[in-house]
Specification:
By secondary structure, the chain is of the alpha+beta class. It is built from six helices and five strands; from the N terminus they run ααβαβββααβα.
């Protein structure tokens, strides 16, 4: 969590009474102005330093401004990534694609973790994924939520007016 970490953590606890549970950790980004890559680096570092672990086999990276992603899309994405790793243990990443546009969340394999830890500024993994070219599995999905961002208060108000939570 970055800006407004305390109220976000409170909202998570209010919405999900079991949160945080055993094995769950909230990682605070003390420098959110350093951009998305700093949050990604801190989260990955926390995952890799967990007790008794060699680090994750893969990580799913969700963006906080995409609330409309369907649960079925996540199941399809996970299954596709798992199949790809079964065929090729060095499979690097899987991303959803809606009408030709790459979306989020993405699932990144362990092989990419060193590169992810070197990212800087507000780039996230975008350039890294682009550089994978055909090695990035782009999974076509019928879910516009994977490309729909809610980036402004106006967009949030519009979203609230169209959908009940």
């Amino acid at each position: 969590l970055g800006n407004d970490a305390a109220p976000v953590a409170e909202a998570l606890s209010a919405c999900f009474p079991q949160f945080p549970s055993a094995g769950t950790e909230i990682v605070i980004n003390p420098r959110p102005e350093w951009g998305l890559s700093e949050s990604l680096r801190l989260g990955l570092s926390a995952l890799m330093s967990g007790p008794g672990t060699a680090g994750p086999r893969s990580v799913a990276v969700f963006l906080g401004d995409q609330p409309l992603i369907r649960p079925e899309t996540l199941r399809l994405l996970y299954a596709a990534h798992k199949r790809a790793l079964g065929k090729n243990p060095k499979h690097p990443a899987t991303a959803p694609e809606y009408r030709g546009r790459r979306g989020n969340p993405v699932i990144l394999s362990r092989i990419l973790l060193p590169s992810l830890l070197r990212l800087e500024r507000d780039t996230g993994a975008r350039h890294l994924l682009h550089d994978l070219g055909p090695n990035l599995l782009r999974l076509p999905v019928d879910d516009p939520g994977v490309v729909h961002d809610v980036d402004t208060p106006e967009a949030y108000e519009e979203l609230k007016g169209k959908r009940s939570f």
